[in-house]
């Protein structure tokens, strides 16, 4: 624990710590919507697809600026979303195959470009490979600032468009009937996923950022049936995972932040699976035992009652 | 010589992944292939740490175990009410994270680094030789992949009818008494084997490409299962050759180039396939429309 306070004593580390918490919070919030729209793996695909976008942005400009990466990743994300939709609509392949195809070919391209950059003379390329698994401790003040601003932006958009996103999550047809531009809103949600991916690329890395979009939302779903509560819980779980991930990975040398954050989120998930009040395993077992007991009791009453009657009959 | 071994390794990867990939695509569980290819990671690392060698049999066994564990966990969470894609996402990210952490913590013991996980080491395949009594028998990876290919071909060949029925109509298969669940787990076992033997050569994430892309390409080209399997292997081998050539010209990652080549072949099939391609379908539609209007005009 003392280790925790020494970390917080370092001002740069403190910023990184809060930045990662905010990142976990915002991806947890966005993840709730993608989970309810049954698009969890789309987040995974978009995260992998961001890699070539980031590489191309770096190759064209030669600077490691999160703003430029955002543009590159967003363009790649748009192409990827379009590709998934196009393959699903215009061939007999189903969405899962389309996701797999887009994910692996984009990531393959990203790896090619990454090795291309490493072999070529792109001066300041060091650290670009850290984007795969993330290294929170290597971030500097301006990175953290951008990341925090982006995360805050995501949460704000979700708060402002809560009603619209809620509608398209549960009943897109009804939303269309009410006159909302569902296509635009869906595209916007995808865009927010891309922004979350780019915000997290330095801290968690493209390979595992999808977990921050999926796991907290699934965990939150175990605790509640209300969307508002679920989003708050999911955000809280995400923030907790981000905090734990940063803390643990910065205290052990050579440990990438992404995997640790994911494991923290998974721990929360396992706890939720066990302890969730209605769907949790424990709650289900208790309910089963109670039903069984009451059933046996009723049966016993019937049994003894019929037994009494039979005894009476023979006696009579 | 190194060219020959790299191409042979790549082709064997393409064949192993191509065969099982067909069944993944047909059963609409392509993303489970993605999940398994990520989650065999901790199995491989733990096997390294326990056995202390890169002994292929131990590794294979551990990876098989983790592959089946992944399938089992995904099924378990799905039955407990989580959407299928979310349960896939939760399970594989967690297991992959464990694998990456183990690699970072014990990097010195396992001789594996994060690059090897992602890119594979196909370029160094001919350095890691298998020696019997001082006589070199060729690269280890080739032997491993060869044995895997034989096992996959044998299992699929023996139970071809059952796998076929399970792929197209699991309900009918169950009705006539085929143990569908057993065959599901058997397929998952084969996927895990294909993944772990390909893992060292092409890396964790690009295995997915070899599993899904050639099989999907073949799916767009034919309506017959036997043909689809052959085409899937052919596409995989073709992308290996094209990708290796491109990687030499561009001086870039071999595995990455192979997957990119596979992606390009997919795009070509998507556009140009004679039966299911975009262009041929457009032409057919146009012809149909012309015929209909002509018939309509004649009727009037």
TrEMBL record, chain A:
It is found in: Cell membrane. One of its GO terms (cellular component) is ATP-binding cassette (ABC) transporter complex. The chain crosses the membrane at residues 15-36, 41-60, 66-87, 99-117, 137-162, 174-197, 203-223, 230-248, 260-277. Its main location: membrane. CDD domains: TM_ABC_iron-siderophores_like. It comes from the Bacteria. Keywords: Cell membrane, Membrane, Transmembrane, Transmembrane helix, Transport. GO terms for biological process: cellular response to iron ion; response to zinc ion; transmembrane transport. It is a multi-pass membrane protein. Gene3D superfamilies: ABC transporter involved in vitamin B12 uptake, BtuC (1.10.3470.10). This protein is probably a component of a manganese permease, a binding protein-dependent, ATP-driven transport system. This is Manganese transport system membrane protein MntC. It comes from Paenibacillus agaridevorans. The lineage of its organism: Bacteria, Bacillati, Bacillota, Bacilli, Bacillales.
Automatic annotation (TrEMBL), chain B:
The keyword Magnesium does not apply. GO terms for cellular component: ATP-binding cassette (ABC) transporter complex. It is found in: Cell membrane. Keywords: Cell membrane, Membrane, Transmembrane, Transmembrane helix, Transport. GO terms for biological process: response to zinc ion; transmembrane transport. It is a multi-pass membrane protein. The chain crosses the membrane at residues 6-26, 33-51, 57-76, 88-107, 141-160, 172-196, 202-221, 228-246, 252-272. Belongs to the ABC-3 integral membrane protein family. This is Iron ABC transporter. It comes from Paenibacillus agaridevorans. The lineage of its organism: Bacteria, Bacillati, Bacillota, Bacilli, Bacillales.
């Amino acid at each position: 624990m003392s280790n925790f306070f020494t970390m917080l004593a370092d001002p740069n580390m403190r910023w990184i710590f809060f930045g990662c918490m905010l990142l976990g919070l915002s991806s947890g919030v966005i993840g709730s919507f993608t989970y309810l729209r049954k698009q969890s793996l789309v987040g995974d695909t978009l995260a992998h697809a961001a890699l070539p976008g980031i590489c191309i942005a770096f190759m064209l400009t030669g600077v490691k600026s999160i703003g430029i990466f955002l543009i590159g990743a967003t363009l790649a994300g748009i192409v990827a979303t379009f590709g998934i939709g196009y393959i699903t609509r215009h061939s007999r392949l189903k969405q899962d195959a389309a996701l797999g195809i887009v994910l692996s070919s984009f990531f393959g391209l990203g790896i090619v470009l990454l090795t291309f950059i490493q072999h070529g003379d792109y001066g300041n390329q060091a650290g670009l490979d850290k984007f795969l698994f993330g290294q929170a401790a290597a971030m500097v003040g301006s990175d953290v600032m951008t990341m925090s601003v982006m995360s805050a932006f995501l949460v704000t958009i979700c708060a402002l468009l809560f009603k619209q996103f809620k509608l398209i999550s549960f009943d897109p047809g009804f939303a269309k009937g009410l006159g909302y531009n569902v296509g635009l809103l869906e595209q916007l949600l995808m865009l927010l996923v891309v922004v979350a991916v780019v915000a997290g690329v330095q801290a968690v890395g493209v390979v595992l950022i999808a977990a921050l979009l999926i796991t907290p939302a699934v965990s939150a779903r175990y605790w509640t049936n209300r969307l508002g509560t679920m989003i708050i819980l999911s955000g809280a779980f995400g923030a907790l995972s981000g905090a734990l991930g940063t803390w643990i990975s910065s205290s052990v040398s050579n440990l990438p932040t992404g995997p640790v954050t994911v494991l923290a989120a998974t721990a929360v998930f396992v706890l939720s699976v066990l302890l969730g009040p209605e769907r949790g395993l424990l709650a289900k077992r208790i309910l089963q035992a109670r039903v069984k007991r009451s059933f046996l009791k009723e049966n016993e009453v019937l049994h003894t009652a019929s037994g009494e009657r039979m005894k009476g009959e023979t006696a009579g | 010589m190194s060219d020959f071994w790299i191409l042979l390794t790549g082709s064997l990867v393409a064949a192993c992944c191509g065969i099982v990939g067909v069944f993944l695509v047909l059963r609409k569980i392509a993303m489970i292939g993605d999940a398994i290819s990520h989650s065999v990671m901790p199995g491989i690392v733990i096997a390294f740490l326990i056995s202390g060698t890169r002994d292929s049999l131990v590794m294979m066994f551990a990876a098989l175990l983790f592959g089946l564990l992944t399938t089992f966990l995904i099924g378990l969470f799905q039955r407990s009410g989580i959407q299928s894609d979310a349960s896939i996402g939760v399970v594989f990210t967690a297991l992959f994270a464990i694998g990456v952490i183990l690699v970072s913590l014990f990097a010195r013991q396992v001789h594996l680094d994060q690059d090897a996980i992602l890119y594979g080491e196909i370029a160094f395949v001919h350095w890691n030789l298998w020696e019997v009594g001082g006589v070199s028998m060729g690269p280890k990876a080739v032997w491993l992949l060869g044995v895997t290919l034989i096992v996959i071909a044998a299992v699929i060949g023996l139970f071809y009818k059952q796998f076929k029925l399970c792929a197209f109509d699991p309900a009918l298969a169950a009705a006539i008494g085929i143990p569908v669940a057993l065959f599901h787990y058997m397929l998952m076992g084969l996927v895990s084997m294909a993944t772990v033997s390909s893992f060292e050569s092409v890396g964790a994430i690009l295995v997915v490409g070899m599993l899904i892309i050639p099989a999907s390409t073949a799916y767009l080209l034919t309506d017959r299962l036997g043909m689809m399997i052959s085409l899937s292997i052919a596409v995989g081998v073709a992308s290996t050759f094209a990708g290796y050539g491109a990687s030499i010209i561009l001086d870039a990652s071999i595995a990455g180039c192979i997957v990119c080549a596979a992606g390009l072949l997919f795009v070509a099939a998507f556009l140009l396939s004679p039966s299911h391609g975009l262009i041929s379908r457009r032409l057919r539609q146009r012809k149909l429309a012309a015929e209909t209007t002509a018939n309509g005009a004649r009727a009037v």
